[in-house]
Amino acid sequence: MSWSDRDKQVWQSIKSWKEGLYEYEANDLEHTYVKWLDYAFESIPQDVQEQFFQRLDGWLFHMHSLIQGSQMQNDARERILVTARAFNQDIETIEDLQYLTIDQLHYIAEQHAGRHRIYSLFQGGFTGTGGLVALGSDLPAMAVINLRSVQLIAITYGFDVQTPFEMMTALKVFHASTLPSRLRALAWEDLMEDLNKKDSNYFYDGSEQLTDYTWLEGPMKQAFKALAITMFKGKKWSGLPLVSIAVGAGANYQLSRKITDFAEKYYQYRYLRLKKNQ
């Protein structure tokens, strides 16, 4: 199956985006933060760190499995297939989606990604009200929203996340997309290494470790967001803490946008690479 001119354009845009990952340079504030983080974790025994991150990985695996097996996700899979049949009535399975053009797939993926960015916006606005329940539910709610969006983008490009390889890959894509900018190029290389050495389209035989202390920068930013919300929640207009609502909504929307953009670049790369080799 040969590439179209549009395929070549998208491939070039992915290449340029990937170069941007490698060209990113951390600023002085980030360097200072990294040194502080390294120092903080040096004082924690290694076995305690390992137990903590193993449990965090287990929580992500469990949440990923629950989302994947939910009726809501099954309904979304069917909606993707129904939309795809509007372009090609012969579409029957998730794998058949790869017969669509990249623009058709982007249209379907953007429908779901855009919807989940809106979910994040509203979740952030709810968090911005400053209530204890709202603040406490923000991190797990954002994990659910964004894990689900990564799964749906994978499905849209014809990669069924119900297989072990694609399930693990979707988790690693989510993890990579939430890393600090200075670490995303290394995470991309790790994803490419998994692709290059895989012997099966079904089984996964790479490393199953996801999180370490470098990943905690994202959750810590969420904690700083919560602090900002708490500071501004007393400033109300017409009875609403508009500043804290705007902080929560804006931060959550930007996070979801970063995650969905990374995920779509990865799965577009997979789609084009597969199409080129057929």
Automatic annotation (TrEMBL):
Pfam families found in the cross-reference section: EcsC
Top-level lineage group: Bacteria
Protein name: EcsC family protein
